[in-house]
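Most newcomers find our protein records easier to grasp once they have seen one. To make this concrete, we reproduce a full record directly below:

===
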Amino acid sequence: MEDKLLDKLDNEMKKYKEFVKENGVDYAIDRAYEITAKQEIIDSLEYDITLSNAEIKALLSRENLLEELYNDWISFDGNMREDIGYSIEKSVRIISEDYKKEHKKEKSQER
């Protein structure tokens, strides 16, 4: 049952990518974010989310499931910005700590 769902999503993704390719490079660049987000949705359903058979059946009943999931997700896009912000803050802390350690080490070697 889960394989059917993943096959459905993979097929929808393949069709979407073909559509994007047909519309040229500039269109593809404009749609790169959407392609990445849709792939993340598929990966999440494959690896991170456990669904009941009833939920899978409901999802399989949708004609453009991946598009629907993407549109629902995009309405919550603020969460992605929070995640990116958190990641940047964490990286800045690590880089700053490394810099301080290296700078401290250089100063002690100069003495």
Observations:
- The chain has a mean pLDDT of 88.
